[in-house]
């Protein structure tokens, strides 16, 4: 036996209470880390974009489109290597509306080469007919390119729905009404996890012809730059071209565009942070009260230990160590559950955000909070126990 | 020089605004190897005197010296160390730690002494053998009778080989037979192991076991 085993024995004297207290800390720290994980995820959403790519959108709002005619004019701006288009589709699964995921109409010959470093095709159909592939486009997309209503889906979405290559997926259009059948011809893996794997990409041309009656408008233009160091000048040049048109533009780096997206959440991140701290504080009071009760129940024993010669500081350390083990143990479990449990779940708000991330900084903060909880909840009972006069302690039972 | 030298000790407790004198200028000497019984009615100051000698309470005035150490002058930290080295305390209600086995309870005071785990274990087992509980090492207090619990408490008091054994009504919570066994054990510790024992008791029969009986009444020795 040693002092540490004495601490453990004390913790196990009321197993149910120790378990419940530890569980309350586990839940508090899980919630704290999970809520901060939401902030981490929003942060990583900002990082999805590249500083070397620009995004042009309607200056009034993202929800207003721009004419397709801008495409060639933007592509002609010096420093612009290529331009792609991307349109938000916003359809629903007609059978299971709750099974929501993002869909975009993209111009495949330009879109996939621009994002070649972010995604790779891991499964794909063989083309039924020979098609002329645009330069720089992954040959694995041949089947996708050969069919007007083909689509490429993220690996996670593919697995989650138990889809198969060649399967036709029906989507009910909301912005573009009607039934939209899409045939899965390829599955992508996000090399950069922040890109997300729960998105469906299909031909912009299909959207233009079926949804817009051939009068194409564009949600956003994505500009790949040949001279990324001139991004600021290029953005100004693009916006200047459309300054006095009906659809004036706003051009910014892709990262700034994503950050703007995240800023739409307003004060939600602040609220999340406050809720996380409130949960921790509430559990801190519970844990503190439990520690006080546990120490008070052992008043006579503490008196006996002091009579035997245990110094005040030893008593202080024993009581504090009990609190620390409960809170630190609970904190570690809670933080680990948040880290691996949430990340493993791959939750991504239906493709709006990258998969849920709980950063190591958040885990470390959670463990730090647990240590602080241990110290705060254990300090008062430890101090009281250490200051207890032997005769007073023994008198409580005698 | 006497092992215990209590000189002109006063102890006054304060209850709310009232002062309650418990010991009033008490002086006393106890020689090494003595077995002293402290008797007296409730509230006469027996336990208070025992606590002062054991260094778990401080006199309001006067001096308590044990083996040449003026314990009233020791700081709390030094006093704790001194207690662990010199005092073995036996309580009326045994006061064993319920979640520790008999062996672990006896081992407890040795955690404060620098020694190997094996040596600690051997000494604890030896102490339990002396009190006749060598076969109960793994029993928890709830699995022992009152008499056995008190014997474990005596082994715990004995294990660090203290200068002085202080027993506060050690048979007060036991039946006659168990009480007799405990008294016989204390007598044996005094005679065979030369332990100095101060025992507080209400029971004249228990006091007969001691070499000397002191009577306390209203904070003063009556003989």
What brief labels describe this structure?
heterodimer; A: 398 residues; alpha+beta; ten-stranded mixed sheet; B: 223 residues; alpha/beta; six-stranded mixed sheet; globular
SSE layout and pairing:
The complex is a heterodimer of chains A (398) and B (223).
Chain A: H1 3-12, H2 15-46, E1 53-58, E2 66-67, H3 70-75, E3 80-88, E4 102-106, H4 108-114, E5 119-124, H5 142-145, E6 150-154, H6 155-160, E7 168-173, E8 178-190, E9 199-203, H7 204-211, E10 217-218, E11 220-225, H8 231-241, E12 249-253, H9 254-263, H10 268-297, H11 299-308, H12 312-345, H13 360-387, H14 390-395
Parallel strand pairs in A: 4-9, 6-8
Antiparallel strand pairs in A: 1-11, 1-12, 2-10, 3-4, 3-11, 5-8, 6-9, 7-8
Helix pairs in contact in A: 1-12, 2-9, 2-10, 2-12, 2-13, 10-12, 10-13, 12-13
Chain B: E1 4-15, E2 18-30, E3 35-39, H1 46-53, E4 61-66, E5 69-70, H2 76-86, E6 87-90, H3 102-107, H4 117-130, H5 146-158, E7 164-168, H6 176-191, E8 196-200, H7 204-207, E9 212-217, E10 220-221
Parallel strand pairs in B: 3-8, 3-9, 6-7, 7-8
Antiparallel strand pairs in B: 1-2, 1-4, 4-5, 9-10
Please report the number of helical segments of chain A: 14
Uncertain runs of chain A:
none
Number of strands of chain A: 12
Oligomer, anyone? heterodimer
Q: For the residues shown, what is the average pLDDT of chain A? A: 88
Mean pLDDT of chain B: 91
Q: How are helices and strands ordered from N to C of chain A?
A: HHEEHEEHEHEHEEEHEEHEHHHHHH
Using the alpha-carbon principal axes, give the shape of chain B.
globular
Low-confidence stretches of chain B: none
- Shape, principal axes of CA atoms of chain A: elongated
Total strands of chain B: the figure is 10
Report the structural category of chain B: alpha/beta
Distance between the termini of chain A: 28 Å
Largest sheet of chain B: 6 strands, mixed
Percentage of helical residues of chain A?
40-55%
Strand content of chain B: 25-35%
